[in-house]
Amino acid sequence: MTLSQVALQLYTLREVCKTAGDFAVAAKKVRAIGYEAVQISGLGPMPEAEVVAICRGEGLTICATHEPSAMILDQPEQVIERLHRLGTRLTAYPFPSGIDFSQPDQVATLIRKLEAAGAKLRAAGLVLGYHNHAHEFYRPDGGPTVLERIYAETSPEHVVAELDTYWVQRGGGDVIDWVRRLKGRQPFIHLKDYRVNATGEGTYAEIGAGTLPFARIIAEAEAGGCEWFIVEQDTCPGDPFASIAQSYDYIKCHLAQRESLPLPTPNLRPPT
Known about the structure:
Number of helices: 10
Shape: globular
Largest sheet: 8 strands, parallel, barrel
Low-confidence stretches: 263-272
Number of strands: 10
Helix content: 25-40%
């Protein structure tokens, strides 16, 4: 993983990106920290052209988005149009809003609609991923987890994974195992650290400030073809810019490879 593959999930900054003016200020700060790419999510209402212009002006690549869950399932054509306007090919189903995983028919309908939406996006040259939380690790009747069913019952060509490391841990899964399972099916991953607080509850942490083995996670994801490593922190203890800077600095110092630099052109002029 090189630093150019490290992105920021803008949901982390949702409270300071409610207007185009706010977003312009935030984007400048994000780029100054060092991030070269962002995932669009959690922004206030603003035209796609304005989002693109702000990102382009700061030298930020839009690597992916999250789109409304219901729109992905029921209006994938609108998602396709939006992704084309934003100039990106990756998106993810962000959250199974209103779906009761204890109801088999609701799970089956979700899987069927994800497959259908993913097929439409693929036909348009785009990619649909699934972003997990903890409750996909629910195991009805001792059978496979809901997350296992989602990937077993959809085509890898139509539904890929946007694994969230924090939520895998919170759900009782093994992050390394899941990254290995999804080899070749995970073009993006959410890097989100997990820490236990003084009362024993799991909580969010800056990368490197929690318990997850990110060197191993990144190595496995990279071996499986992951393209984008997206930092996210759902809540921050203070200034979110301080948290995303702390995460970026840790990645830069401890996890990322140095970018390949061209070798200098040898001086072949004979000595005088």
